[in-house]
Amino acid sequence: MLEITNLVKRYGQNDPVLKGLNLKVEGSSVVSIVGASGAGKSTLLRCINRLVEPTSGSIKLNGHELVSLRGSELRHSRRRIGMVFQGFNLIDRLTVMENVLSGRLGYVSFFQALTRRFPQSDIDRAFSLMERVGIAHYADKRADQLSGGERQRVAVVRALMQEPQILLADEPTASLDPKTSQQIMSLLQSLASEMSLPVLINIHNVTQARMYTDRIVGMRHGQMIFDGEPKEFNQDALDAIYGGIESPEEDGGDSGQQASPAPEATA
Questions:
Q1: What is the pTM of this model?
Q2: How far apart are CA 180 and CA 160, in angstroms?
Q3: N or C: which end of the chain has fewer CB within 10 A?
């Protein structure tokens, strides 16, 4: 279970990007985070995996505090947090298999990593996962020869090779066409169920959030203003997150600020 309590992230002397956020993600649930650009969605994910340092608050993964970790303890903890990026973050000149096996770098020695000599058990698991997502026949193909959807599947398998306790996905479909986006979201939904793996997805596409996730968290100005099932995510919630309606949690603000338009199918 991921448990976030009173999470604050401030850059310099600017207003906080995250303002005392509280969130729990558990079981095999798929949770989507929606909100306009600048709402704090990506910052939230990057605080969880410590790509950015939280200013204050608590982030616990299965009871283990992540915020206070440093050095080797932090590296070991990151092995249990899988991450899928919008831009795939693959090494183009390496093969699919080599990219997938890079998900095991936190578990092997420096020499094994340098020479790419991974245990047979890792290779077997890589083939099994690649077969599951439909890319096993690309094992020896360079990553830069794949389509966007195929590259994202490689990225998903690489994250799963870490044997994560939670999977984070930062706009995993933003670079893909609509059909491929639906395939990737369906894949993440299926994998969460099969592996009893909680998945937290930062996504702009509200329609996909409704279709493929169990729970929607809506953010505005660094605060969570909606948390419920997709069937509860109605027009009022949409307006509060993307429109000109201020949420009860927000105090003050510039009343003359122009509101962002409410999104349609691909907000």
A1: 0.85
A2: 20
A3: N
